[in-house]
Every structure is written in structure tokens, then in C-alpha cells.
Amino acid sequence: MIQSTSHKMKDSKPISTNRKVKEFGFRDKIGYMFGDFGNDFSFVLVSSFLMVYYTDVYGISAAFVGILFLVARLWDAIADITWGRFIDTRKPGKHGKFKPWIFRMSLPLVISGILIFIHIPGMSNGFYEAYAFVTYILWGTLYSTVNIPYGSMASVITNDSVERTALSTYRTMGAMLASLIINGVGPIIIFTDNKASANGFLSAAVIFGILSYACYLACYKLSTERIVLDENEVPKGKLGNTIKGLLKNKPLISILGASLIFMMSTMLIGTVNVYLFKDYFSNTAALSVVGVIQTVTVFIAIPIVKPLVSKFGKKETATVGMLLSAAVYILLFLLPTLTATQYIALTAIGMFGYAFFNIMIWAFVTDVIDYHEFLTGLREDGTVYSFYSFARKVGQALAGGIGGFAITAIGYNAAKEVQTEGTLKGIYTLATIVPGAIYLLIFFILVFLYPLTKQRMKQLSIVLAEQRKAKK
Predict the structure, then answer these.
(1) Using CA atoms, how far apart are residues 417 and 430, in angstroms rounded to an integer?
(2) Same domain, 463 and 364
(3) How many domains does the chain have?
(4) In angstroms, what is the C-alpha Rg of the chain?
(5) Above 50 in pLDDT, residue 14?
(6) How far apart are CA 306 and CA 360, in angstroms?
């Protein structure tokens, strides 16, 4: 139990007393937004178009690419933990602990992203497979060296729980903006006459790489780390103590579980929706509408997240959002005769509900980092964040084929122009009751397992302030 005291901690005052810092404000939010803007110029290009580049330009089999992606995700998970632990054992510099690594590693990351899309004509299939393996693994490793410090940095920019929600919101905004640009402009650059163009892919990689690097520099210049250990303090945490703390961290374990099944549901919906609108509704044009609506719901939710969190708390706001989503998808299951337009209209409400959890997830992570410090007395932002990232990537690797397995299990046959009634019913079930049940499960996790309410976060901030003062 976190005991409340009469002391208050001012957010603008860092742990170290020999540094003058700017007060937290809009500058930090914009700077943090640019971080994921830069991340997703690279990440979205790779995740959206690399498969078709490998199969259509390199001529590599889809099966080989699938194995490569699986191996890469598992390797990335290990790289996340290793890099997070490495950063936590370094002394902070005058610009903090995390910002310097974003500055140092962003250019190598951008270069590696360009290397992925270099095509040397006339080489053997074995050469292309080897080149793909090396460059993709290299890119993933370097991505960890930027993304881990970037994600960890949110917990040291401010200790105010509500403002951390604002940072998470701006991070989501940056990711969405990059996604809109790449998915909107990218196909125009990389495809010629409806065919993948090697030169087009390289041009896109260079253009988005330059934009990515500019965003990273903006993140570095505009963001300020305020919660910084004294420069003379040598990290004393042992890995064994860290692991014990992580295993005792109930908020971390519960939010990790909720995040993993949310991610699996998102992957399932993304796969099943193609078959839902193609076979069940016979309206593939509606897929683009769904994609636009999903983005719009996030932008509608963004300006109201902070006021809701300020009044009710993160846990409380996300809980209501997930309950709304669960109710909508369960209702959709009970209404199988809807038209595509009616289905999309109701789905938009469900998307709006889970947008709150999606926006706030990174703010939840910063809170569980604080809780780790409360449990162990160790400030290990990089390690805790990388543990969270590690588990998500393992989940991505294991869940990568969930959509294909589910479609196969309901009897889908690509050779048939019209699927059987049972298969169509199965597709509709996968698209409705399954995500409905998952969102309901997340609701229960937040209500019964995640303990950091608005009041407990206030108490936690006060207790941590006292712990830090006692160490001086």
C-alpha cells in the first residue's frame, strides 16, 4: 500500500540539484511527438511495404520472408533488453541519460533503413536472401538503439501523471501523421504502372529517411529530461534485483497482459477485415473507408484524453473506453444482417472506444516505471521499458500468424469464388465476437488487476519524492 504524506513534489524540479532546466510545457510535447514521427517514417515504410519489396523486387519467396520476420522479431526482443540494460548502467550527461543516444544512433538507423532498399541487379537468389537477412536484422537492432531511449525518456521528461498522458497522446499523434504520409504518398513513389519499382523504393527510403532524421533532431532539441540522477552517482542495481522487482511489479504485468491481447486483437481484425468486406459484404472499397475512420477516431479522441485523465485518471478513462468497445462488437455479433455501411458506422464507435487505451498505453508504461522505482529503489527506466518492449515483440512474433490460422480454421478456400455459409458465418464471428470478448477481458484486467488509480498515482509521486530526497 502506498502511504500518502503531506509533502508535494514540483514537476519542474529535477532530482539533480546542479542543473537548470526549462519548465515542462508545449515545447516538450511537440519534441516528443517528433520522436515517433521520426520512428514511424522508418517503421511504417518497412512494415507496410517491405514484404512486397522482397517478393516482387528481390524475388524472394514469401515463406522465407515470413521466417526472416519471425527471427528478426525474436532478435529485436533480445536487443531491446540488452540495450535498455546498457543505457541504465551509463552515467547521465549534461543532456540527460536518453536524449544523447537518440542523437548518436538516429543517423546510423536512417542509413540502415536506406540500405534495406538497395537493389543490385543480376545477383543470385541466395545473395538477395543473405542481403535481406543482414540488412533487416541490422535495421531492427539499430531501431532498438533509438526507440528504447525514446520510449524510456517519457518517464523522465515529467513526473506528472496527467502530463505523461499528454506525452503519450502526442507520441500517438506523431505516429499517426507519419502513417498518413507514408500510406498516402508512399504508393505513388514506390509503384510504377501498378508494379513495384526498385528505384521507387530507394527514392522513398531516402526521402523518408531524411525526414526521419530531421524529426529525431527536433526531438533532441525540443525535449528536456528533468528527472536525472546525480552525475556522480554510479548505478548500483544488480540484474537479479531488477528481475525480482519486475516480477513483483503487478501494474507492469497486468498492463503488459492487456497490451499483448489488445495487439493480438488488432492483428486479427486487420487480417479478418479483408475477408469480411471481400467475401461477407462483397465490398472491398469499404476497406479504405474503415482505414480512414480508424485514423479519424484517434484524432477525435486525442483532444479529450487529457481532460478526462485529469478529472478521472488513466485507468478509469481507459476502462470505460474498453467497455464501450466490447459492447459495440458484441452488439455487432448479434446483428449479422447489417449492411456494410451500418456495420462501419457501429464499428466507428467501437474504434473510438479503444482509441483511448491505444493513445494512453505509453503513459501507462511510464507509471509502471515509477512503480518499479517504488518497489526496488532503483531508477531503471531503460530496463523496464525494454522489458515491456521485449514482451510485445515476442508476442508479435508468436501472434504473427494468428489471422491466417483463424481464417484457415473456419474453412476458407481461396479457390472458391463464393465461400460456404459456414465459412461466411465464421468470418463474421471472428470479426465481431472475438474482439468483443478480448476487449471485455482487457476491461476486467484494468478493473481488477491494474492497481494504479488516479489517487494511488498521486500518492506514488509523493512517496518517490521523499525516497529521492532521502538518497541525497
Answers:
(1) 20
(2) yes
(3) 2
(4) 23
(5) no
(6) 10
CA 404 to chain centre: 22
Decide which of 394 and 12 is more confident: 394
Is 253 a member of any domain?
Answer: yes
Q: Are residues 212 and 245 in the same domain?
A: no
C-alpha cell at 419: 465461400
**Residue 8, in any domain of the structure:** no
- Domain containing residue 369: 236-472
pLDDT top residue among 130 and 362 = 130
d(CA 276, CA 279): 6
Q: Indicate whether 202 and 292 sit together in one domain.
A: no
DSSP 8-class letter at 92: P
Residue 467 is assigned to a structural domain of this protein: yes
Helix, strand, coil percentages for the chain (3-state, nearest 5): 75, 0, 20
CATH at 204:
1.20.1250.20
Distance of CA 118 to the CA centre of its chain: 27
Contacts of 417 (CB under 8 A, 6+ apart): none
What whole-number distance in Å separates Cα of residue 368 and Cα of residue 336? 41
Is 321 among the domain residues? yes
For 449, the grid coordinates are 488487476
- Report the distance separating Cα 204 and Cα 162, nearest Å: 37
288 pLDDT band, cuts 50/70/90, is confident
pLDDT band at 392 (very low <50, low <70, confident <90, very high): confident
Cα 415 to Cα 419: distance, rounded to the nearest angstrom = 9
Q: Which three cell numbers stand for residue 134?
A: 543482414
Residue-wise pLDDT for 250-266, tens only, equals 999 999 999 989 988 88
Q: Distance between alpha carbon 295 and the CA centroid of its chain, in Å?
A: 15
User: Quick one: pLDDT band at residue 12, thresholds 50, 70, 90?
Assistant: very low
